[in-house]
Amino acid sequence: MLLIETKKINKVIGARELLKDICFSIYKGDKIGFVGRNGTGKSTLLKIILGHDQDFQGELNIKTQAGYLPQFYDYQDEQSVEGFFTEVSYDYGNILRLIKEFGFKTNILDRCINDCSGGEQTRLQLIRALIDEPDLLILDEPTNHLDIETRDWLAGFLREYQGGLLLVSHDRYFLDQVVEEIWDLETGEIQKYSGNFSEYRKLKEIELEKERQEYEKYQAEKKRLRESMSKQQQFVNTADKGRKRTDSFWKEMKGADRRTGRMAKRVKTLQNQIKKLDKKEKPFEYKEINPEFVGRKLHSQYVIQGKGISKVFQGKKIFEELSFSIARDSKIALIGRNGIGKTVLLKIIQGEEKASAGEVFRARELEIGYFSQKLSKLCLDNTILREVKEQLPERIEEEIRTFLGSMLFRGEEVFKKIGDLSIGERVRVALSILLMSKANFLLLDEPLNHLDIFSRERVEEALKNYPGAFLIVTHDRYFVKKAVNEIWELSTNGIECFNGNYEDFLKYRNGDRIENKLEDSLVKMKRAELIALLEEARDENEIERINSELDQLNPKKI
Predict the structure, then answer these.
(1) Are 175 and 197 in contact, with CB atoms under 8 Å apart?
(2) Helix/strand/coil percent split, the chain, to 5
């Protein structure tokens, strides 16, 4: 069953041709992943499909109603969940059925939607999109605020969904779980690839390498033709130099002139061949961000130690008795369901919030760089340049502008106001400030949200090579698999620390016999540090305190 068909959709914004001759068909049962860099026109094409943008050229034939989940929602103040649903339908039978199917109780209808978590809001938006039982779902970045558990649930739901699916996402793992075809929007055109995201990337790399090789081959051929033309042109010029055109001259030089004429013709032929080669365009290359985390190495064996950390907010226990240690080379992913307290723990470690009980010990030379997922430290009225200057007063303007150029803010762009930037651009500003700071330990709260796949990969590589330690809250499992060496899972039972990659962690959590050596190794390192302190201690109270710590030290609580 055909759901949507387009023919030669074109969209021009200013002098830029954003979409060029876009043609596609979507049938019931299709599961399509729609990818492309930020700003390539994905959201614009979705608006055209949904009828929100009528200013385009071409044909759009829609044969069904589409359920739409946008990337951003502006909820009305104090709007209830029930009011959110009844904006589109009064079919309470369907509403109650979906509420139950999506794991809610009926009392959710009375809650203010602004009081719901990001994951709850995404599920409620999906319920709203499904109320009228559409044959096509169009989802724009549905996983941005979902924890891993909810992402897996959504992936399972979409796999079983019988209608068509057009999914815009930068979550590579999620795309692998759900889609069977990838549409890649690049330079205004769509290229289609069968398979999931991983299969698409393999095919894409093969294509790009082939294009690079062909272009290098053309360049080598052009160079050869130019050198040949230069030699033959030189012969023609030498033969003509200083000769007087008389009858006797032509008689004597008849044979030589014939040869010169042939050479001149060859030069003309070579010129034509080079012109044809000049029509071969260089493969298009996007400008990439070039992040580099410089970070200074710490001398202390440990960056952070937490002992018995508890947090109670408005009478509600967030977590209690958390104990942990972060070594100077730790690269840690903090995972756990939404609302469990991951951001709160980061703020306690940073010192922005106080723990209700327990202590956090920080190395003396520690300088923390903190990335907030809400980008709350950015002043919307500042220009990009002024914002960086104010947060990093020790940096001179020339340094700042050079670095901002590496993050794709070039020339006059540095005078754009923060409030006028897209969310992805604001993330790049916040990352620039973090990168240019003197931080030697990074606390990162969902820094990859709103970055396209290619920018995520650049940040991944930079963090993987970062010389210091970092603790990152993320639900991006591709990142967790590639860039970290420890997994911390925060749950209602406390915090569990696992030494290894994400795949080993999953096996361990599923009951496979994989030894978790992290706690034992940390205990040994801590014991060695305490013994070293004991040898230098002179005060009796200090000696007693260190001995007490050594006696109490065990692999369960650090």
Answers:
(1) yes
(2) 45, 25, 30
With a cut of 70, list the residues of the chain below it in pLDDT: 232, 235-268, 270-271, 273-286, 293-297, 512-538, 550-558
Give the pair of three-digit tokens for residue 371: 């990335």
Which CATH number does the domain 302-516 belong to among 3.40.50.300, 2.60.120.280, 1.10.10.10, 3.10.580.10? 3.40.50.300
Region class of 500: left (phi > 0), else alpha (psi between -120 and 50), else beta:
left
List, for residues 61-89, the tens digit of each pLDDT value: 999 989 999 887 788 888 999 999 999 99
Taking all residues of the chain, what is their mean pLDDT, rounded to a whole number?
84
The whole-model pTM stands at 0.77
Per-residue 3-state assignment (H helix, E strand, C coil) for 278-324: HCCCCCCCCCCCCCCCCCCCCCCCEEEEEEEEEEEECCEEEEEEEEE
Q: How far is residue 288 from each of residues 17, 70, 186, 448, 507, measured CA to CA in Å?
A: 21, 27, 14, 15, 36
Domain at 2-204, CATH class: alpha beta
> Torsion angle, CA of 535/537/540/545, rounded to 10 degrees?
-80
User: What's the pLDDT tens digit per position in 279-297?
Assistant: 556 666 667 777 776 656 6
H-state helical runs in 51-136: 81-86, 92-101, 118-130
Under a CB-based contact definition with an 8 Å cutoff, are residues 398 and 436 in contact? no
pLDDT of residue 558: 35
pLDDT tens digits along 382-415:
999 999 999 999 999 999 999 999 888 999 999 9
Q: Are 141 and 168 in contact (CB under 8 A)?
A: yes
Sequential DSSP letters for 97-110: HHHHHTT--GGGGG
Alpha-carbon distance of 477 to 463, in angstroms, equals: 15
